[in-house]
Amino acid sequence: MKKNPFKILILGITSVCFIFALSACSIQSKPTSDNSEKVVNLFTWANYVPDSVVNEFEKQTGIKVNYSNFSTNEEMLAKLQASRGSEYDVVICSDYIIEVMGKQKNILMQPIDKAKIPNYKNVDPQFLNQVYDKGNKYSMPYTLGSQMIVYNSEKVNFPIRGYKDLWNPALKNSLVLVDDPRIVLGMTLKKLGYSMNETDSKKLDQAKQDLLKLKPNVKVLDADTPHNSLINGDTTVGFMYGSQASAAVKANPKFKIVYPEEGMNAEEDNFIIPIKAPHKENAEKFINFMLDGKISNEATTANEYVNTNKAAKKYMSKEYLNNRAVFIPDSELKRAERFRDVGSATKTYDLIWSEFKQR
């Protein structure tokens, strides 16, 4: 049968339009590439990367930083799982949660191409190749956090040298502790001579009973600002992060810093790139910028965490170097214990902590 040329024309036009429509849809649905959008989506704790550093990166590169924050590593992981690693470009998170993610069937991190980050050479080797990410396949260190004892030397009339001293009955209703189960239980386990990552049920039960004995001495649990209760005089002794202890000492020079004789904890916070980061090239540029020695020093001077960058040392001020809360000797850091993924024992930790807080 002879075909109507008008119909053929209409069909041809319709087909062309359909093809263009499909192409347009394809273009719209394709994730924006590094070359077409000058953006990097950063996900970490609030104020962890100082505004001055963010502004300098934007000025040097023309890449805008979209800063989103989380409160806990667990919250970060939940959001990364919900987006399947496609919403953020750079995440700064802790070592043990990287170990958790590395064990999952669907890895939410992508390997970092070290050739794209030449400032990786600036990282102090003692902070590399840790058990949570051998060879630093997925992560690069940013800073290190640690907890320590800080106390008012005018109000405590006996020497405090370690965790065991916090159980002294003379400190009844005098302690402030950072509100974190792994940290406080880790302290208790260390006092008993065990690992901070203990999973043995009998040892954990022993730690539980010992922790409950500490409760009469505890007046305040505070995750964010435990130093405030020391400064305002509500408490006289605290166990908290170095940056928080530093704030207390700056407010009152009578406060003394103690590195617990039983051994400290050390937590490395790292840069990772999610598996489906929409702006991978910008993520690499951001990490490389952050590992510059001068920039690294600027960041840790502001957030008062331990600097992990050997190239930053020449920029450090005397004030930073003399601050025992944030410039911890290598001798202490080398014997410090890192938190590990404790697997199913996590539930036991949570139950112990819940009972402790309810007492």
TrEMBL record:
InterPro entries per record: SBP (IPR006059), Sperm_putr-bd (IPR001188)
Keywords, in A-Z order: Periplasm, Signal, Transport
Signal peptide location: 1-24
PROSITE patterns for this protein: PROKAR_LIPOPROTEIN
Listed PANTHER family: SPERMIDINE/PUTRESCINE-BINDING PERIPLASMIC PROTEIN, SPERMIDINE_PUTRESCINE-BINDING PERIPLASMIC PROTEIN
Organism in which the protein naturally occurs: Clostridium aromativorans
Localization, UniProt: Periplasm
This protein's name: Spermidine/putrescine ABC transporter substrate-binding protein
Keyword Signal attributed: yes
Keyword Signal: yes
Pfam families referenced in this protein's UniProt entry, alphabetically: SBP_bac_8
